[in-house]
Design a protein that fits this description.
This protein is 38% helix and 10% strand. It is α+β, with helices and mostly antiparallel strands and 343 residues long. The protein has one domain. The structure holds iron/sulfur cluster (2 copies). One iron/sulfur cluster binds next to α7.
Length: 343
Amino acid sequence: MPMDEFARWLEKGFAGDMDYLSRNRDLRARPADLLPGAQTVVMVTMPYLPRGTQAHWRQKEEDAVNTPSRAVVSVYARGRDYHKVMRRRIASLARRFASLYPEGRFRACVDSAPLMEVELAERAGLGWRGKNTLLLHPTTGSMFFLGALLTNLRFSGSAPVLAPAPSSIERHCGSCTACLDLCPTKAFIGPYQLDARRCISYLTIEHSGDIPESLRPLMGNRIYGCDDCQRVCPWNRFAQAATLPDFAVRHGLDQALLTELFAWSEAEFHARHQGSAILRIGYARWLRNLAVGLGNALASATRAADTVGASDIRAALIARRDYPDAMVARHVAWALAQEGVVA
Ligand code: SF4
Ligand code: SF4
């Protein structure tokens, strides 16, 4: 989003407790402060659907969020941490430039510096910003990461995919509102405007405290991120699979059950998520998120008179009832109280 819109978005408090966004606000408008003498930002994308992803992947993802006992981890986080993978690739691009232009200085950025990535990528001709606030491309959808390479070299710019439209509503989203309508927590205030405080990606990853009780039932079984506003986007019929092996699913994270993941010890959490972005949230937030999913699964099992399913979930939660972290214990208590909750 343009800087003035971004400033208004921050002022309205939509960033929640992502204070770093306010702290770095002015830097975002001045990439030259991130690399002295910067003249050019080279924007790049890298697809992350695992290699071999089948054409009906969007249906499979929809089935997963509709199966309450399943633990749903956002697709991008099921493989290796993209920050490292992408940074390596951008550094390699920088070395190639450096071999051609020895006077060049470079800085690779993958979520590591305050940049308006979507805005820059749009200007670089890599797509347009959809109503779900993500960058969309007509032949690749939005299932890709964005990265940047700042340089003091002056390169000529590329043309935007779309000519500036009189109204952003008239851009390639047309009259579609699928993402806005589907969002489980109603996090979109309107097209192109997200209240991050209601977004499941923010709640499960960025937010460090208790998840507001009013939002917990709406989160379903999404325990790390959320793909709903991408899955439903018609442009993602064209999403492409990664060419790298790094984004292959690890530890069955595309089909795990909530109870299985909740049973992992802290040592298992660290060992299995080594090299994964998930490690960053830490074990307590991991358990917190799973407890919310289990509470919702317990409510569903009770409503469906699934006594075996409810009993397994109850047993998993009771085993963690006295967990020493108070936040986790509060979420477990909430989850156990969902038994018999009528939707
Ligand atoms: S990621 Fe999920 S919760 Fe967040 S805006 Fe998209 S659909 Fe809504
Ligand atoms: S779902 Fe529709 S409105 Fe949302 S980003 Fe995709 S095309 Fe645009």
